[in-house]
Every structure is written in structure tokens, then in C-alpha cells.
Amino acid sequence: MDNPSASPAKPPTPPPLPPFASFRQHERESPYLAKLASAPDDWLSRPVDPPKPYTYEPIHYFFYGTLIQPDLLKRILDLEQEPELRPGKVIGYSLSSWGQYKALVDGRPGEEVLGYAFLVESAEQEFKLARYETSAYELAPCMIFFADGKSPEQAQAKTFMYAGDSGALKDGRFDASLWELQMGMRLPPRRRRQHGREEESS
Q1: 66, 72 in Cβ contact below 8 A?
Q2: Which ranges of the chain have pLDDT less than 50?
Q3: For residue 142, how many other CB atoms are within 10 A of its CB?
Q4: Which pLDDT tens digit goes with each residue over 39-52?
Q5: 0.90 exceeded by the pTM?
Q6: Which positions ≥6 away from 140 have C-beta within 8 Å?
Q7: How many beta carbons lie within 10 A of that of residue 90, not counting itself?
Q8: Residue 139 vs residues 17, 36, 136, 158, 165: alpha-carbon distances, Å
Q9: Please, what's the b/e burial string for 184-195 (b: 16 or more CB within 10 A of its CB; e: otherwise)?
Q10: Which residues form the Gamma-glutamylcyclotransferase AIG2-like domain (predicted)?
Q11: Which domains can be identified in the chain, with CATH numbers?
């Protein structure tokens, strides 16, 4: 029979911890500290290379409306010579009428819009084109496929697309989104609901 007064056996004493230095040997060396240690002594005092000056890269613009007229484009951009326009097309778009003007909108896959391309050569020319088109149009990227047999045969470009509701434009409905964009204010909710009912009943 066990003696209840006997004390329990003591657990074995754990081995002593290794010296702190041995832990340091297994630590992963910081790549930043290693790079810093290998840097030359005068790296902080070395002059920094100045940033390269900004250079504008010319880009083609695709025109399909009034801007395909060389005389008008020459006047808008203050050109000294007649602008060189290349015939071409964009694919996946369609044209609608916004009053007396044409407006480029998204079309069916494979649908083509014919027009002309012009190589814009400065940011100032881009600004003048945007000012002429007004807030009714927004700039969008596109791919031009040229039709004159010259090189390049295609190019990344920009074009002006209708900035409002293309569905309302195609259906001939009041475009509340374009009105708000041009006026810089929102229609009252009551007016929005009224136009919504008119569109549903039409």
C-alpha cells in the first residue's frame, strides 16, 4: 500500500539555455542592413541625378464629325499649314446625333465608324481640342485602323465620345446626366422622377 505522506518525485531539471550569442547565429540577416553595410562611405553625400525633363509624345486623335474639316481644324489649333489627315476607322463604336452634331458611342462588336486621324504634337493642341468639344464629350482611348496603306497601319489613339447617357441619346430622350454635367448641378429629385415617368410612358 502506498504511503500517502510520501512527497511526489521532483521533475528532472531542464538543461540550461544556450548562450544568447547562439540565438543570434540562427537569426536571418536583414537584406537592408547587408546592403547598407556594403554601401560606400560617401553614399549620403553623393549628388542625386536630376529627373529627366518631361517630353511630350505625339499621339493620334480620331475625328468623325466637324473636326474632319481641314480648315476648321487648322483654325482651332492655330496651324500655319494645312493639317495632314489620314483616313481610318475604329471598331466597336457607332454614331448618334446630338442636335446638329455627331456623337460617338459604344456600338456592337465589329461595328465600324469611319473618320480621319490627326497626329497631335503638343499638350497645348490637346487642350484646344478639348475646349472646342466642350463638356458634352469626354476623351477616351481607342485603336485606329488606317485605310491609306501607309505605315503605321494601326495606332493607339484618343477620340471624343459622348459624355452623357448614350441610351437616352439614341432614343431621343432628355439626358439628365448630360444636363447635370454641363450645368454643374443636380436636378431636383422631383424633376428626375418626372423625367423618369415621361421616359417610361414614351
Answers
A1: yes
A2: 23, 179, 187, 191, 193-195, 197-202
A3: 22
A4: 777 767 777 788 88
A5: no
A6: 158, 159, 160, 161
A7: 21
A8: 70, 47, 10, 7, 15
A9: eeebeeeeeeeb
A10: 61-164
A11: 59-183 (3.10.490.10)
